[in-house]
Amino acid sequence: KPRLYSGMQPSAESLQIGNYIGALLNWKSLQETHDAFFSIVDLHAITVAQDPAKLRENTRRTAAQYIASGIDPDASTLYVQSHVAAHAQLAWVLNTITGFGEASRMTQFKDKSAKQGSDGTTVGLFAYPILMAADILLYDTVVVPVGEDQRQHVELTRDIAARFNTRFGDTFVVPEASIQKETAKIYDLQNPLSKMSKSAESHAGVIWVLDEPSVTAKKIMRAVTDADGGVVFDRENKPGVANLLTIYSTMAGRTVQSLEDEYAGRGYGDLKKGLAEVVTGTFGPIRARVIELLDDPAELDRLLAVNAARAASVADATLARAYDRVGLLPPR
Ligand code: AQP
Question: At residue 176, what are phi and psi to the nearest 5 degrees?
């Protein structure tokens, strides 16, 4: 089976529905056909300030949400990034062959550092994509399923891998980005022009996987729409309704056309009610399973340890190969 790598940051108590649709849903089906590594990328999360106690807790919670959403920790390797030391170690080596100008062109850094201000922006945030390159290359990854926003980082990974191979001899597999289609991008319910995000300033437009069903339903009923009244998919002129239709169609596994047909001539209230049922119907059982998993943290930690050992056995071999190629003297 082809190797696959992907991850998410434990940067909030709950994942949001964009993470579920944009990542978890695809991961779930991809794990059938791939040798998949799914990481909880805590080293990436600390590139912006995190509360230590919360980070620890959110890391477990994120793991529980992966499992409850259908990632099988026996079939796939589901682990915490910092449990495998090779990530930080290989990132250092890759730092030394990445151009400063090259890294400076990353648009995510420009966006995120603008939000942090010059005092809050760290070297870690700047080096984020190079750590991501290490994540991917350690597992001889062929497929990297990511959103459009990550395309540039996977391109950088390809450049770094090819450069290393040219300079030091064949060492890394050069991966392919497998970009999820634009329709899978979910927008904030209160501001349908901006991406839904865990770190949004206001939570009013964010659907959390772990919210109580009544809270989720209320947020959906209050979603921003328009005065036109027609249930039609038109991203440009009706971004709010288009977003609701995207969420509905991916969560229910139905085409947008069939939803437009069903809700033709009915109001937005009906559409929202239908959507709320579908979302709470999916997240209700996930939430219950997460609560169960978190109730036994020792078992969860044991599972993560077993998976980390499996990841390390692959990653350590790649790291050793890379260290050797650049001429680092092996310890006796
Ligand atoms: N709104 C979205 N629509 C579709 N996919 C999304 N993803 C995130 N938001 C949406 C996908 O979820 C995964 C999570 O990646 P991440 O945790 O590394 O961080 P992110 O992409 O920056 O996600 P957030 O929720 O916005 O987190 P914060 O606020 O912490 O930065 C990725 O596969 C992403 O494509």
Answer: -110, 135
Find the 265 Cα to ligand 1 centroid distance in Å: 34
Model pTM above 0.90: yes
Distances (CA, A) of 196 to 191, 247, 287: 9, 12, 20
Asked whether the predicted pLDDT for residue 182 surpasses 70, the reply is no
Q: How far apart are CA 157 and CA 266, in angstroms?
A: 48
CA separation, residue 169 to residues 91, 140, 154, 164, 204 (Å): 18, 15, 21, 7, 52
User: What Cα–Cα distance (Å) separates residue 261 from each residue in 69, 105, 129, 231, 251?
Assistant: 30, 45, 43, 9, 17
Residues flanking ligand 1, CB < 6 Å? 8-9, 11, 16, 18-19, 21-23, 146-147, 184-186, 195-199
Residue 15 CB neighbours (<10 A): 27
Cβ pair 163, 97 in contact under 8 A:
yes
Closest CA to 175 of 187, 193, 185, 160: 160
Structure tokens at 325: 């190629």
pLDDT, tens only, 188-206? 999 999 999 998 989 999 9
Contact status, residue 41 vs residue 47, Cβ threshold 8 Å:
no
